[in-house]
Amino acid sequence: MPGSTEPMDQRELLALEQYLKQYGQQAEIFASQLELMENGRMEALAAIEALQGLLEAADSTVLLQIGGGASVRAKVLETDKILLNIGSDVIVERTNKDAVEFLKDRVTEMEASEKKVAETLEKLRAQINEIAKRIEQGYQQAVAAEQAAGPLSRQPQEDE
Amino acid sequence: MFAGLKERLQAARARISGSIGAAVTAQPADIQDPEKPAGASGTGTIPDTAEAAPSSQTSATFATRFKTLVIDRELIITEKELADALSELEITLLESDVALPVTDAIIAHVKKQLVGKHRKIGQSVDALVVGTLKDALLNVLGKGFDLSSYISSHERPVRILFTGVNGTGKTTTVAKIGAYLKKQGFSVVIGAGDTYRAGAIEQIEVHAERLGIRIIQHQPGADPSAVLFDAVQYAQSHKIDVVLADTAGRFHTKANLMSQLDKIRRVMKPDLVVYVDEAVAGNDAVVRAAEFERTVGADAVILTKADMDSRGGAAISIAHTIGKPLMFLGTGQAYDDIIPFSPEAMVEELLGDV
Q1: Are B330 and B173 in contact (CB under 8 A)?
Q2: Closest C-alpha to B234, from B215, B212, B210
Q3: Helices B313-322 and B283-295, axial angle in degrees (round to 10)
Q4: What's the per-residue H, E or C state across A44-95?
Q5: Helical packing angle, B3-26 and B125-141, nearest 10°
Q6: Those residues with Cβ within 8 angstroms of residue B175's Cβ, 6 or more apart along the chain or in another chain
Q7: Which residues of chain B make contact with A120, given a CB cutoff of 8 A?
Q8: Where in chain B is the domain with CATH 1.20.120.140?
């Protein structure tokens, strides 16, 4: 690790702390993005299951959630005509099978994007660990230097 | 970058080429004109004889098309041949989050370019289709924006104000642009105008220190107009080429933040207002950019996180929708991970040989 044998000065330690903070913020953004993507993927998978269930069930009665934890039984009028937002806020009518295919493609696409975000997040975390390790080393070196210098020189550091 | 869109466009290209090719090979059985010379048979003929000939939808009459085929050894592409493939292309574009008006413009362009087109028998259908699709995309992608040339041809310091919604990577983008301009040989100063978000000043300070760029900053909570005014003053007195002004993220609906932005604009008089958003936001980014352009005004756009965007809809749509050029694409975490947007390079990337 660069500079690990050289004692770190205060300025370098401060800079490392700022890097740590900055990487931490970036990691947070990517983590929340990953969560959003994961939610989108789970939603698509739930829709696939519901669409397939509609075709398989003899009766097209479903539980329709109306908010606040309340649900009503509802009958789906056309189980093979699905209104689907295909992107750009354009909604088209598709057959049940085509809608499932479309959603499966979207799930695959989201998985690929999630993988990329996860890789970036992994890299950031590795960098965070590296910086944290260097900061820890810096502190240990500072403490060791203080102890070697004797009790008198410790006084000014107590204020920190 | 934009892998999904690339795959879909390549499929659409094959589909359109296929429709034209299929129409060509299917035609000999349809027309058996006694006047037709033997040499023309089997190489191709004219489609949909009875109904298409009098139709005004195609630019050529039956007689013209027949004459073209026999004398000039050429085929004329009809709208009917293309209808299915164009409809598929439309869905493909929409599924890639390309905005509806942009999709319409692309389809109209392809239709206009291909329908009625004379094609030499034996000439590659694919080359014709690829050329047309490239043209259609270039038509909506605009001309891009060469920042280096802009700076070189304007009075220094060139003042660039970065604005946009929260969390899209504005501050990192400012640092990347700083690094890019430094590499191009320009001197740069950054104004830490995001005095609102906790840690934003430290963040840009760390970037500036790493890049060896001077930063002008005030305390958190200070008036951003004052910070940016100071940055411009500093640049003027030190003969710096470019002032990069970072600002806090804001939604166009927040009246107080918008009036703050107005004040910043009055005080620092930016030469360029750059709107920053993320490519992964897709159509949302396009809608937001259009709103910002309408309420605040923008001269160029930067899309971040393009490396994570498989659909590419925002990059395709934004210039055409808001009428302002796309300037850069952010493609990763490192300072070098920013590429000047070139419509030609993007079209080549999407439709070049696989």
Answers
A1: yes
A2: B215
A3: 20
A4: HHHHHHHHHHHHHCCCCEEEEEEECCEEEEEECCCCCCEEEEEECCEEEEEC
A5: 140
A6: B190, B204, B207, B208, B211, B335
A7: 308, 332-333
A8: 3-141
Window 203-222 of B: residues touching A by CB (8 A cutoff) are 203, 205-206, 209
Question: Three-state DSSP class for B348?
Answer: helix
- The answer to ipTM > 0.90 is no
Instruction: Tell me how far apart the alpha carbons of residues B24 and B15 are, in angstroms, rounded to a whole number.
Output: 14
Cβ atoms of B274 and B327 closer than 8 Å: yes
* Tokens encoding A6: 């050289």
Question: Alpha-carbon distance B233 to A114, whole Å?
Answer: 45
pTM of the predicted structure, to 2 decimals: 0.79
- Residue A6: helix, strand or coil by DSSP? coil
Whether the predicted pLDDT of A157 surpasses 60: no
pLDDT at A7: 64
Fold held by B147-351? Rossmann fold (3.40.50)
Highest mean pLDDT, choosing among A28-37, B85-94, B235-244: B235-244
CB contact under 8 Å between B307 and A116, yes or no, is yes
Nearest CA to A87 out of B219, B106, B5 is that of B5
* Class level of CATH domain B3-141: mainly alpha
Q: Which residue has the tokens 């000043």?
A: B201
Which three-class secondary structure state does DSSP give residue A85?
strand
Residue A24 sits in a domain whose CATH number is 1.10.287.370
Q: Cα torsion at B274, B280, B285, B286 (round to 10°)?
A: 100
User: What stretch(es) of chain B map to CATH 3.40.50.300?
Assistant: 147-351
Task: Identify all chain A residues contacting B96, using CB atoms and an 8 Å cutoff.
Answer: 87
Q: Is residue A32 part of a domain?
A: yes
